[in-house]
Design a protein that fits this description.
Length: 297
């Protein structure tokens, strides 16, 4: 998982650099932008930061331009990673020479005068792609917008924790769906809810179980058989959510992004909030679900 993507902007004119930087940062808080107006410090920045995209304006001069292109060509040979490089120049001959000389890297040519909006959009697509899940709800005129990468951390952590605790080798999950579009009730008996307010997601995550799945899982994990959800065993759902959240928190922390500590709350019965994205899981112990309610805090 990568949350923060480092972008390097190299341009002679500081006003233009700052405008590009401002627009990039306004697009996503997953972006971090470094700026230079010459080849100086290129090696230092690249060695300390994993650069994911480069915009290079040849107005810094041919010598510096070719030095930088040669540097990124060597990086590709070393790491075998294609970094998107957006390249522009008012000198058509220099542009053609660069294309002919640096064939090991893929230069994406931008014509002058530079369209900054177009550049920023291209950078965003090159780095993030279609990283937003949009689903239209029948119960809302608005679309749901959930950061897929953020959601995938919870899916992966949930699967890992539950598979280990219950010693499951057959645990799989399906594609996200909208709860409002389901024609058959899920028969959820108990769920643990985590409230999250972060730069990437504001809302609630649930881990939700039908009665028998919860009892099956409780028996395997705690080694205690029970036939009903009661005061003695219901807190197990909260403990499970705490462990999953702890795994997520660690993954985010490794990327330099910290989540606040939370205390899960326990809910009995169906999830009432209608605008919910559901990720179904299946296993030999039964079905259960992750449910995501954007905006519900």
């Amino acid at each position: 998982m990568e949350f923060i993507r480092n972008i390097l902007i190299i341009d002679k004119f500081n006003d233009q650099v700052e405008l590009i930087k401002k627009q990039i940062l306004s697009k996503s808080n997953k972006f971090s932008v470094f700026t230079l107006n010459s080849r100086l410090q290129i090696a230092e920045i690249a060695s300390k930061n994993d650069i994911k995209c480069l915009f290079l304006n040849a107005n810094i001069g041919k010598v510096d331009t070719f030095y930088i292109l040669r540097f990124f060509e060597m990086l590709k040979e070393k790491n075998n990673v294609d970094i998107p490089i957006f390249f522009t120049s008012e000198d058509f001959d220099l542009m053609q020479e660069a294309l002919a000389k640096f064939t090991k890297i893929k230069l994406q040519i931008l014509h002058t005068p530079l369209d900054i909006n177009d550049l920023v959009e291209k950078i965003q697509v090159a780095i993030l792609g279609k990283s937003t899940l949009l689903a239209k709800s029948k119960t809302s005129k608005n679309s749901l917008s959930v950061d897929v990468e953020f959601m995938n951390v919870f899916i992966t952590s949930s699967k890992k924790v539950i598979a280990e605790m219950a010693q499951l080798s057959d645990l799989v999950h399906g594609a996200p769906i909208l709860m409002a579009q389901l024609k058959i009730p899920l028969d959820i008996a108990i769920s643990a809810k985590i409230l999250i307010s972060s730069a990437y997601f504001k809302g609630s995550y649930y881990i939700a179980f039908p009665k028998q799945t919860f009892l099956n899982f409780y028996e395997v994990a705690v080694m205690e058989k029970t036939t009903e959800i009661n005061e003695e065993n219901k807190d197990f759902a909260g403990e499970l959510a705490n462990i999953i959240y702890g795994q997520c928190k660690k993954k985010f922390s490794d990327e330099g992004f910290n989540l606040d500590m939370v205390i899960p709350s326990i809910h009995l019965g169906e999830i009432k909030y209608s605008v919910v994205i559901l990720i179904p899981f299946e296993s030999s112990l039964g079905k259960f679900y992750l449910a995501i309610a954007p905006g519900l805090i």
